[in-house]
Structures are given as C-alpha cells and as structure tokens.
Specification:
Blueprint lengths: L2 H7 L3 H9 L10 E2 L7 H8 L6 E9 L2 E8 L6 H8 L4 E3 L2 H8 L16 E5 L8 E4 L5 E5 L1 H8 L2 E3 L7
Parallel strand pairs: 2-6, 3-5, 5-8
Antiparallel strand pairs: 1-7, 2-3, 2-4, 6-7
C-alpha cells in the first residue's frame, strides 16, 4: 500500500497500515472523510445518512485498571455492570482520555475497532449484527468506513456479548 493511498483516503496512517496488514487495503477507497467532525455517533449518522444504530462505537473501559474495548451500536449505551460481570472484574469504569490514547494510539471520537497500538480484550455487543453494514471510525474524528458487522467483529478479535443497557 502506498502512502498516497493512505493520505488520499483520509484514514489515520496507523489505521491504513493496519488495513494493509489485515489484507484489507481494498477498503481504503471506501473510507469517507467529512469536513466536519463525526466525533459522536449522532454526528457520524447524520453525515453518512444512515441509522444511528448503524454506527459502531469503539469505547475503551478500564476493568480493574486494564483497558478493554467495547464495540456498541450508536443508538445504545453500554451497561457497565454487564461488562463487569462478563469480564469477572471488580470494577469497570470509562477509561480516561490518556488511557484511551495510550492504549489505542487514537483520540476519542476517532478510535477504530482494530489497528490499535496495543492488543486489548474486545467485547462486541450483539446489537451490531442487526445490520448488513455498520460504519466505524477510521482513526480520526473526520473519517469512517463501512463493513459487515460479523467481519468487523472478527477483525477486531471480538467476543459477541450482550452488554447493552436495557430500557424497561
């Protein structure tokens, strides 16, 4: 993969490299870059023109101080208690900004589901499987890419779980 292809796509260079390493360089031309930030699921869905639940959020939590990535559909919230039980941890909290950047190599709002600086445990909520295609960050708050959810979870090394907040 050429540096030009990575720059042209707008993807973060580390993410573009991860795509090439995974044999997914053909995804680079499908990365969409927006002039305005798509930092939140709502912003991304509006820019893409898709349902909020078609956005795949990549969220870092700290389980007993150890980073864990949770992939969640954009219309839902993570139930931290369910994550705690799933991991058998004593305490699970949202990761601080520094831990997110240190673990993934990306800023909050641009964290992709894979291609991180360090290997972390990945939990993927089953709600993502309700769509043929989901959109996830491509390493910057301005870029997203489409992928079939099962393929995305597989490349992320994710375990399918039910950690979505349930509403009565």
């Amino acid at each position: 993969m050429t540096t030009d292809a990575a720059e042209e796509s707008g993807a973060h260079p580390r993410f573009a490299e991860a795509l090439a390493d995974l044999g997914l360089a053909d995804l680079l031309p499908r990365i969409r870059r927006f002039p305005d930030a798509t930092r939140t699921a709502e912003e991304a869905a509006a820019a893409i023109g898709c349902e909020l639940s078609q956005i795949c959020k990549s969220l870092i939590f700290a389980a007993d101080g150890v980073p864990v990535l949770v992939l969640m559909d954009g219309a839902s919230r993570v139930d931290v208690e369910l994550v705690r039980r799933e991991l058998g941890a004593e305490k699970v909290t949202r990761a601080r900004v520094e831990l997110v950047r240190e673990t993934t190599g990306y800023a909050i709002g641009g964290v992709p589901p894979f291609g991180h600086r360090t290997r972390t445990r990945v939990l993927a909520d089953r709600s993502l499987l309700g769509h043929d295609v989901v959109w996830a960050a491509a390493g910057t708050p301005y870029t997203v890419f489409p992928m079939a959810p099962k393929t995305l979870v597989a490349h992320a090394g994710g375990t399918l779980v039910d950690v979505r907040e349930q509403h009565p």
